[in-house]
Amino acid sequence: MYGFMGKILVVDLGRKDFKILEKDEPFYRKYMGGALLGAALYEELISGYESVDALGPENPIVFATGPMAGANVCGATRVNVLSMAPESTGIYLSQAGGEFGPAIKRAGFDALVITGLSDIPVVLDINNDDVRFVEAGDLWGMDRVEARQQMIADMGDDYCIASIGPAGENRIRYANIMFEPEHYAGRGGLGAVLGAKSVKAVAVRGDQEIKFKDPGAVTSVNRKGGSGFSESIKKNPRSFLGVLRHLGTYGLLEMNRKSGNLPTRNFKFGCPEDAVDLTHYRHETAKEEIVGRITPCKNCFVACKKSSKINPGHSSLAEYESIAILGPNIGLEEDLETCLAACELCNRLGLDTISTGNMIAWLMNCFESGALDQEKEGYCIRFGDGQKALALIKNIAFRENDLGNLLADGIKRAMGKLGPQTKPYSRFVNGVGMPAHMPRKKPGIGFAYLHGPNPNDHMKQEHDWIASDPGSLKFFNLSVCSTPDALDEAKIDVAKATQIYFAAMDSLSLCMFIFSPGNIYSFDEITDMVNAATGFQLSFEELMEIGERTIQLQRKLYLDLGGKDGAFLPFLEEEISSGPSRGAKISRSDFNHARKYYYKVMGWDENGWPESSTLERLGIMPL
Ligand code: SF4
């Protein structure tokens, strides 16, 4: 086989043992890699269990890579992590860049699955097919930067490392997983799954050759993409890709602020420039004072990752999502220094910046609105209280006091304890905090936030702009057109097509900054690269079928394990009263109609469960 190693490593922490599953070509033709391979392995490994507890031994966690990982391809290094999410129930898929994906392949595997629970904290040392369970010792309790430094000193720097921080160890329901120093699988609380298994870190190295059918052809398409990219950003340095290259995702702060998409004060409105000093978001300031050198994933010419000029001691310059949610969304729009300190603290302690920021914004909003009373609670935090936010992040990660302990267990329990009057201020869907794109400004994305298998994920379909761009839609053979502020059937048709496309790219474990429709490669070029890597003769339509299989299998697992679509959030129908997104809203009747139509076009019944005929068509066992 080409592009695949043909083996899956399954580690059993309870028995301190492992086995290697051998898979054949028909298996890979059907399940490819990344998101789909992860879902298929997850399904295989939970068969026989009547129910799955996210923090129990029966819940496997899968790290899956893709067929182009290890080739000279920009954006092919991603790793997909899939497990049952600790708060929401139902599976969640999270992704990260870095070299961990290719390292799994160099060790001889397409995926690594961790099952069971260890009785003591361990580091999994995977050196080719030699697997050791090393006592974590003092590493347990260290923040992730310190832990990584210690591990490199002990094991050498040719290992790629995934690790958790104290938040994962303490099973905070929105703990994340860090890969090497700068990459995070942030969403869904999968760090708590590793924490429950007592796995501080997974270190992987290997020397296996990764064979591709026609590496020259792969390189040649990649090179063409690189030249096209360089020309395009020279011509238009202010384009989305130009901004990513020159300023990283930090540059998206200014772009989203201008378009009214930068959430402020718990998604109340888009950040208004006239009321506050936002010089630090301007591209000129960012270039001169904030954004440092590039620190890209290997082979990436877009290089969205940057170091920081203003706080070089930090792990890296925080990403757009983190800065937005721990900045303007908690009232720190003018205080970049505290915002970046909050991002760094979350990154070191192992908390998802988005869900943590949402939790703080919810609490602030509750006190501001009077839903919570300072006298009764003996505590108060308001928008802009940066120092209190920093203290709260530590309290949560270490479960330090009653409030920290309560928030550590997720929004559902927090609302249950603090009262139903706090519910309207929650921006969580199924326990996952809302990303930094205004759902009322982008109703297609807002709609997607409320639907599984990955609720509150902004990277599972193209954003609303594409629905009114006939040039891009023609690639999907779509002649429908919608408007940016509409939630109509056309928007749902576009959402379905781009969801399937994004899922196909996730099953190849590719970076969506590079592989979003029309960004760098044409659909034919992507298909050519996959075929040159694997030796398959797939058409683009067959790649899309893999995307559809990914969504339907994940949807089946999500619902089967207790996941649900989110109820309409009342704040969505309140018209935004000021700022650059003034007037934006989603009507409840549009939403209800869109949900009905969405279920129908996805091949689901009126309750959102995949029809048997849908699953059978894609070769998935019916429910
Ligand atoms: S665009 Fe960014 S995240 Fe994607 S591969 Fe390049 S450096 Fe990594």
Describe it:
This protein has 623 residues and is of the alpha+beta class. The chain folds into three domains: 7-205, Aldehyde ferredoxin oxidoreductase, N-terminal domain (Aldehyde Ferredoxin Oxidoreductase,  A, domain 1), CATH 3.60.9; 216-425, Aldehyde Ferredoxin Oxidoreductase Protein, subunit A, domain 2; 443-617, Aldehyde Ferredoxin Oxidoreductase Protein, subunit A, domain 3, CATH 1.10.599. It has 25 helices and 16 strands. The protein has a six-stranded mixed β-sheet with strand order 2-1-6-3-4-5, with helices on both faces. The protein has a six-stranded mixed β-sheet with strand order 8-7-12-9-10-11, with helices on both faces. The chain has a two-stranded antiparallel ribbon with strand order 13-14. Helix 2 packs across helix 20 (489-507), helix 12 packs parallel to helix 15 and helix 15 packs across helix 16. The mean pLDDT is 96. Bound molecules: iron/sulfur cluster.
